[in-house]
Backbone:
């Protein structure tokens, strides 16, 4: 299957994509992860992307599209993939359409994970990653045991550079202005499925499987 996960920052795209990947073996293709890897490796592309990411702006379409083209051409993507965080504006959606035509592929579904603004703010401002295990945690929602499991193993709770309140507000504005128009775009193609994504990860995952069935 070829799936696009659409949704605001903090809607759980990454978490759900990871589960789909583990269960169905389709690779999760996250442009955010690809960009963060390029930043960490300090590639020229990463250095160029970093300023936009830190400011909560979108990285240029040129950089992101080159990355996606390269990633979708890799052998593990031949049997399907989950796009997480791409496309993020209409130009990227149109470029994706052209790339898929070129590869003689079609999308099976575009799933919107819907979460209200207040919850998104808490999810994003509270989001942490355990430096030891890589596990995603949240200071508001994770249990004390989960947090202790990280710190007692010698891990630290790390916050993403762009997860501070000011940048988060800006990222959510960018989502409303540039990414949300994709909802109508994909509704018109008949591919859109909407999943209410405010409940637990397990419930959301069950709903996701239902709409993909
Ligand atoms: P994410 O991990 O998906 O929240 O992405 C983190 C940051 O990476 C975003 O705030 C953007 O700066 C950048 N980014 C990720 N995906 C894209 C994309 N498709 N187009 C432009 N910028 C992106």
Residues:
């Amino acid at each position: 299957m070829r799936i696009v996960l659409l949704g605001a920052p903090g809607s759980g795209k990454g978490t759900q994509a990871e589960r789909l990947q583990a269960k169905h073996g389709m690779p999760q293709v996250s442009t955010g992860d690809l960009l963060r890897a390029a930043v960490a490796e300090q590639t020229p592309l990463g250095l160029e992307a970093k300023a936009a990411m830190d400011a909560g702006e979108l990285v240029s379409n040129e950089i992101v599209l080159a990355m996606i083209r390269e990633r979708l051409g890799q052998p593990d993507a031949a049997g399907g993939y989950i796009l997480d965080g791409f496309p993020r504006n209409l130009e990227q959606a149109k470029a994706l359409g052209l790339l898929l035509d070129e590869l003689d592929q079609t999308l099976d579904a575009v799933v919107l994970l819907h979460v209200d603004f207040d919850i998104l703010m808490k999810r994003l401002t509270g989001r942490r990653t355990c430096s030891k295990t890589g596990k995603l945690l949240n200071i508001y929602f994770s249990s004390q045991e989960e947090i202790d499991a990280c710190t007692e193993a010698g891990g630290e709770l790390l916050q993403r550079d762009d997860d501070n309140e000011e940048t988060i507000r800006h990222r959510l504005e960018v989502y409303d202005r540039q990414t949300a128009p994709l909802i109508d775009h994909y509704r018109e193609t008949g591919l859109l499925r909407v999943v209410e994504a405010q409940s637990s990860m397990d419930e959301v995952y069950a709903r996701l499987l239902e709409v993909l069935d």
Summary: The first strand starts at residue 2 and ends at 6. The chain has one domain: 2-27+74-212. Residues 9, 31-32, 35, 52-53, 56-59, 64, 85-86, 88, 92, 162, 171 surround adenosine monophosphate (CB under 6 Å). The radius of gyration is 17 Å.
